[in-house]
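Customer escalation, tier 2.

The customer says the design service returned an amino acid string that "doesn't look like it belongs to this structure." They asked us to rerun it and document both sides in this ticket. The original C-alpha cells are below, unchanged.
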C-alpha cells in the first residue's frame, strides 16, 4: 500500500476491536500510522495487538478516533471520545446514520460506514485488505467541519476504499435496500432449509449458496442493525410483501404476469454496478470442469490469460460425491466461444 497522505491523522485510536475495528487498525498500521486500541473486552485488545493491529495502551493523544462498536453503543462511545479527546476528529463505522448524526452534531464528528465484512467475526478474522475497492460512505452531520470531513476521506482512501458522500437519511434508505433487506431475505430462504432432508440437499447448487451465504453472519449484531434502521427496512419489506402477494397469485396461473416479474428482476440486476463501479455489462458464462486438486485453478487461470481472454467474474461449485468442481468463468459474450475452443484445445472440458 502507498504511504498515507500527509493530512492523514496520526496517532489514531480505534475503539472496538472486532472484525471491522481491527481491520481498520491493521490497515492504518500498514500505512505507517501509530494506532492505539481500546475495547470493553481486554481479550479482544490482546488478540488485535497480537496480530499487529496496534498498541494496547494509549500514551499520547490521538488526532483521529474510529469508533467500531455495536450500533447500540455507538452514540455513547462517540460522545465519550469527543469529550475525552477535545482536539481529535471522531468517526464511526456503524451501518445506520440518521439518529446518530442528529444526536451528535459536533464539528469534529463525521459519520462513516465501510461496506465490507465477512461471515466470520472478531479480531482474528480481520484483514488490512478488507476495505480495498469497497465503498466507504462518508456521512457528515449538519455542522461537520470541512477539515474533519477531509480527515475521514483520507482514512477511507488510505485503507483502499472508495469514498461516497451521502446525507444520513439517504444513506439509511440505501443500506436498507442493498444490505439490510437482502440479509433478511437470505435468512428467510435459509430458514426454509431447517427441516430439509439429506436427499433434498443433495440437489443444492451454487444458486442456493449464493442466496444463503450472508445468513451465516452474527445474529446479535444484525438485531442491533435492524432495530436501528427499522423505518426504511419496513418500507422496503412492505413493498416486498406486496410483490410476494402478487407472485403467489400468479404462480401456476398467469405465465405472462410471471414473465413480467422475472423480467423486472433481471432488469433490476442491471443496476448493480459491475467492475470498478461501472455499469454492469452483459456477460456469458463458460463452464469448466476442474479436478479438486492443488494448482488446478491456477492452471485454468493461466490458460485463460494465455488465450487473451479477460475474466469478468468467477464462481466455483463443487459436485456432491465427486472430487471435481465446476468453475463458472464470466466473460464478455464475444469472447465466450473462443475461450471454450481455447480451453478445450488445452485439455479442459469447457462448454457454454
Amino acid at each position: 500500500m502507498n504511504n498515507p497522505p500527509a493530512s492523514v491523522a496520526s496517532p489514531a485510536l480505534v475503539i472496538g476491536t472486532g472484525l471491522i475495528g481491527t481491520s481498520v487498525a491493521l490497515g492504518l498500521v500498514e500505512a505507517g500510522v501509530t494506532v492505539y486500541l481500546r475495547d470493553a473486552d481486554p481479550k479482544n485488545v490482546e488478540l488485535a495487538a497480537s496480530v499487529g493491529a496496534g498498541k494496547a495502551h494509549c500514551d499520547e493523544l490521538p488526532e483521529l478516533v474510529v469508533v467500531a462498536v455495536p450500533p447500540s453503543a455507538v452514540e455513547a462511545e462517540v460522545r465519550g471520545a469527543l469529550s475525552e479527546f477535545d482536539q481529535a476528529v471522531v468517526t464511526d463505522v456503524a451501518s445506520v446514520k440518521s439518529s446518530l448524526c442528529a444526536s451528535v452534531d459536533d464539528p469534529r464528528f463525521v459519520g462513516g460506514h465501510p461496506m465490507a465484512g465477512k461471515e466470520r467475526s472478531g479480531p482474528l478474522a480481520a484483514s488490512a485488505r478488507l476495505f480495498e475497492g469497497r465503498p466507504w460512505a462518508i456521512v457528515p452531520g449538519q455542522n461537520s467541519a470541512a477539515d474533519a470531513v477531509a480527515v475521514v476521506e483520507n482514512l477511507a482512501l488510505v485503507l483502499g476504499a472508495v469514498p461516497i458522500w451521502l446525507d444520513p437519511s439517504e444513506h439509511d434508505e440505501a443500506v436498507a435496500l442493498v444490505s439490510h433487506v437482502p440479509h433478511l431475505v437470505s435468512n428467510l430462504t435459509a430458514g426454509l432449509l431447517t427441516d430439509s432432508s439429506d436427499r433434498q440437499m443433495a440437489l443444492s447448487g451454487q444458486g442456493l449458496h449464493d442466496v444463503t451465504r450472508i445468513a451465516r453472519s452474527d445474529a446479535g449484531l444484525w438485531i442491533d442493525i435492524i432495530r436501528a434502521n427499522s423505518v426504511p427496512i419496513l418500507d422496503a419489506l412492505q413493498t416486498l410483501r406486496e410483490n410476494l402477494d402478487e407472485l403467489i397469485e400468479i404462480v401456476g396461473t398467469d405465465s405472462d404476469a410471471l414473465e413480467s416479474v422475472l423480467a423486472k428482476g433481471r432488469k433490476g440486476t442491471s443496476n448493480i454496478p459491475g467492475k470498478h463501479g461501472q455499469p454492469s455489462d452483459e456477460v456469458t458464462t463458460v463452464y469448466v470442469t476442474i479436478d479438486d486438486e492443488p494448482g488446478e485453478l491456477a492452471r485454468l487461470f493461466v490458460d485463460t490469460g494465455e488465450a487473451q481472454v479477460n475474466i469478468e467474474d468467477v464462481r466455483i461449485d463443487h459436485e456432491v460425491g465427486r472430487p471435481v468442481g465446476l468453475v463458472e468463468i464470466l466473460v464478455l459474450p464475444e469472447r465466450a466461444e473462443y475461450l471454450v475452443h481455447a480451453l478445450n484445445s488445452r485439455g479442459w472440458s469447457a462448454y457454454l
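Tier 2 assessment: The sequence is consistent with the input. The CA atoms of residues 120 and 299 lie 29 Å apart. The longest helix spans residues 168-191. Sent an explanation to the customer and offered a walkthrough call.
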